[in-house]
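Bug report (template v2)

What were you trying to do?
Predict the complex of my protein with zinc ion.

What happened?
Run completed; filing so the output is reviewed.

Input:
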Amino acid sequence: MSRQSCIPLALRSGLVVLVAWLALAPRAQAAQLEQVLLFLGAEHSRLLLVLDEPASDVSSHSSPAVGSAPARATVMLDDTALASRLITPYLQRPGGAEMPVGQHGIKQLVFSSMGPRAQVVVELERARNLSITAVGDRAYLLDLRLPDTPPDASLPEAPALANWLAGLSMAPSKAHEPHARPRIVVDPGHGGWDSGAVGCTGTHEADVVLALARRVATGLERELGAEVLLTREDNTFLSLHERAAFANSRDADIFISIHANAAPAPTVWGIETYYLDVASDANAAAVALRENASVHTGVQADDAASRVLSELVVSGTSAMSRKLANEIQGAVVQNLSQLMGPGQTRDLGVKSAMFTVLVSTRMPSILFEASFLTHPDDEMRLRTPAFQRATADSIVQGVRSYLAATESE
Ligand SMILES: [Zn+2]
């Protein structure tokens, strides 16, 4: 996985009015554009547009740069609305919602509604040759290739993406309806034959994260009145794909995957929280690689999912996930610093990386790395009930802040 800078996905407070309107407006169109995934290559990129229902017609055209207007690739989806969660994180301009990319000759994506149509414009440094392929029955893949260049073989192909989407659609594909009580899936990482990281004194990640996840579940139910579902309640193995499919099929509002970290150097310690995007640094990429490892031994559909993980920019839930990650990481670090005393807590921050389990979920999702089992003191803390209790309470507090912030938007 190559090193990539994080894509800035700014939340703007000026969006409040528009968001409220989008939430209340009746949906006239049959289909809704729910998620956009952009796979980047040097001269060739692919844009996957995922809808909840097929569009009645899809067309594209390419236009060269004219004066100060950049070269563009435009996709029109007939009888299609834009999901509010797809566009609300981005800066709203008269031309549409702007999602910055700034990599590999792609400047930005602009989402807009033209009457009953959804329009996605890709602004480019140079004009590209375009082609559109249907992926399954409700997604479309736009190829953007510089003239006279061969296809990039490292990008995921339509059949692999179709398999991946088919695996995801165990879920009801209808638009997400808000629940009376927040519905939260808590995912204790690993389990069964997959013990995860193993600590200096033999602590298994699978065991310690199950204990922590149970405390989080109890807290979410008691403190927030949430409806909580655990992906596993005992020491059984679940593939990453099954965990994501579980959350999708239950139509969860939030997905929280709980892990304990490991590093080659025994001196590394601290707490970090991840959301899905291109890797924010080399260490983040290494953590994703380790946590994604069990994907290769799962069912066959997971192979398709792992091929999806090239260089990826994702829109739809990424900004919400980052917000959730910030709230949880902030609460955990603040509370543990107070509880444990000076020098006993280390904030490694919120990071992004391409975790398979997060790629496949449809709701705001984070992966929490509680501490490093490969550091003797961190391992000891992680086994301590007081530390577990305070960490779980802090995760609950972070979710509470996230829910309060998203409700008031
Ligand atoms: Zn793990």
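What did the reviewer find?
Residues 1-25, 295-307 have pLDDT under 50 and may be disordered. The longest strand covers residues 31-39.
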